[in-house]
């Protein structure tokens, strides 16, 4: 009799555990799961008018993210898998901004990175280009950032660290290339008056390793003119971190000699109008994506190199700071 009662108890416990297990796969929680995303060839995504076809490939790498469920939290917290991570939604955006607004801003930064990539590539290939803007408009100010109670929604950032800001990506790139704890001068226009603030870069919880002042921004008054048309088909990829690899793919289609040497070259890093390659987030997941795609080389911003090296294994890394430097490294690789 006692054995039968125990069997009933065990059966009920197993049933409850099974139900909880199933339910945990459907209950959304305020986190995102981050993991390796695509490492996709760029030649089908980018077409330069009158451009050359090449044997090798540049590969865009991305981080995949999705809304977490309860099971993700338990599993990742308990086992801490190398290829997955959790990021709180509240740490990615201000509390009064919803996910759709945030995605729209990231999509805008992606479009700006395309403009910057085109400008840099055409200049590198010897063309004259024109890109200009009025500055970066402050859309939201985060409570956790150093800009809180100093910058205001509607401020127009026109310079960071004495460097002119013409579009949002300019400000993002300049700040990301500082060290956490550095002080930067932010110059804004507010109601027609020029004002300058000294703000320290901080590390936001949802963006570890990346310096920030805690604002979301968008470009104001963009104007550009390029000598040839460049068509992009990047679908749902957003954010500014593919700017450098965009620039290399465009440049490679503009020049006669294939700079890849027939190899598969993956990479990441923001791009500024002066050709600087800036740090990005999620580099370990991008390295993993490149390895899975069989990349021969992976170029990575100088600031991300140490982290990337921990996960690269046999994948050869190129530490880069500028497009000029990257091109020089690739030319050396071809000769070796």
How is this structure best described in words?
The protein is of the alpha+beta class and 336 residues long. It has 2 domains: 30-90 and 226-335, 2-Layer Sandwich (Ribosomal Protein S5, domain 2); 130-223, PDZ domain (Pdz3 Domain, Roll). The protein contains 8 helices and 20 strands. The protein has helices at residues 2-24, 70-79, 99-124, 168-176, 243-254, 283-292, 305-312, 323-335; strands spanning 28-41, 46-48, 57-69, 85-88, 130-132, 135-141, 156-160, 163-164, 183-190, 193-200, 202-203, 211-212, 215-220, 223-225, 230-232, 264-267, 270-271, 277-278, 297-301, 316-320. It has a 6-stranded mixed sheet with strand order 4-1-3-16-19-20, with helices on both faces. Strands 6, 7, 8, 9, 10 and 13 form a 6-stranded antiparallel sheet that branches. A two-stranded antiparallel ribbon has the order 2-15. Helix 3 runs parallel beside helix 5 and helix 6 (283-292) packs parallel to helix 7 (305-312). The longest helix is centred in the N-terminal third of the chain and has 26 residues, at 99-124. The protein is globular. Keywords: Membrane, Transmembrane, Transmembrane helix. GO terms for molecular function: ATP binding; ATP-dependent peptidase activity; serine-type endopeptidase activity.
């Amino acid at each position: 009799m006692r054995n039968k009662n125990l069997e009933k108890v065990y059966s009920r416990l197993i049933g409850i555990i099974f139900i909880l297990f199933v339910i945990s796969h459907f209950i959304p929680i305020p986190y995102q799961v981050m993991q390796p995303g695509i490492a996709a060839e760029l030649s089908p995504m980018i077409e330069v008018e009158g451009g050359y076809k090449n044997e090798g490939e540049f590969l865009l790498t991305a981080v995949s993210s999705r809304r977490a469920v309860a099971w993700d939290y338990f599993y990742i917290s308990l086992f801490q898998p190398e290829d997955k991570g959790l990021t709180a939604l509240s740490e990615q955006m201000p509390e009064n901004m919803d996910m759709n607004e945030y995605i729209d801003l990231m999509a805008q930064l992606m479009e700006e990175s395309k403009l910057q990539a085109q400008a840099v590539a055409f200049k590198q290939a010897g063309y004259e280009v024109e890109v200009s803007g009025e500055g970066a408009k402050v859309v939201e100010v985060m409570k956790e950032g150093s800009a809180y109670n100093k910058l205001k929604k509607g401020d127009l950032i026109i310079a960071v660290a004495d460097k002119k800001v013409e579009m949002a990506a300019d400000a993002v790139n300049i700040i990301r290339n500082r060290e956490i704890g550095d002080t930067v001068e932010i110059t804004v226009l507010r109601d027609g008056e020029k004002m300058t603030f000294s703000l320290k870069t901080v590390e936001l919880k949802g963006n570890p390793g990346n310096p920030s002042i805690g604002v979301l921004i968008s470009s104001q008054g963009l104007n550009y003119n390029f000598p040839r048309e460049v068509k992009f088909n990047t679908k749902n990829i957003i954010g500014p971190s593919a700017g450098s690899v965009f620039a290399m793919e465009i440049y490679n289609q503009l020049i006669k000699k294939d700079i890849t040497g027939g190899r598969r070259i993956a990479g990441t890093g923001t791009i500024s109008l002066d050709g600087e390659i800036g740090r990005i987030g999620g580099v370990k997941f991008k390295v993993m994506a490149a390895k899975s795609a069989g990349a021969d080389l992976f170029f990575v911003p100088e600031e991300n190199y140490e982290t990337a090296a921990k996960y690269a294994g046999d994948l050869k890394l190129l530490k880069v700071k500028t497009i000029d430097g990257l091109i020089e490294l690739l030319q050396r690789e071809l000769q070796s």
